[in-house]
User: What shape does this take?
Amino acid sequence: FLIPETYSVTPSDGAVSELVRAASALWMKRVGERILGPGADGDTLLERAIVASLVEKEAKHHNERPIISGVIRNRSEAGMKLQIDATVVYAWSLRGVDLKRVLYRDLEIDSPFNTYRYAGLPPAPICTPSEESWLASIEPEDVPFLYYVAMPDGTHIFSRTFSEHSEAVRRSRNAFGSVSQ
Assistant: This one.
């Protein structure tokens, strides 16, 4: 796995190998030892990578990463579909479609990455997660939330119940509507 970073390598026949070694060493130093070391909760490395990628795509603000990771854990433990917009965007991108905004009709795409249609984690990561998202995936915040919805400034409203979430969605739609006018 890689961490997005600027890597310095010299152009040569071995530059790719050098880059892979440097990136792997950085990942192991910053993240890998914590994931692979004592205290791992039984999730596989692939599962952690997938959750980290979901957190990466969903969270625009660093402080929300562990909260979103906690919501993903809560929904998984409750047997709920994850219903993450970023997975729908990714599924459409695999078909060459660049979604700017997810609409109800977009949720119908038949793809194993579509977490609105299929329960559980998608089959693979949807991006390369940052160090912060990796750490959020291994240390999700213990939150009571099962839902969240994005606001125009990139923050989220987190909710415990579907009723609270429905109100948050209404507020989000109103806020996005006022931004686009």
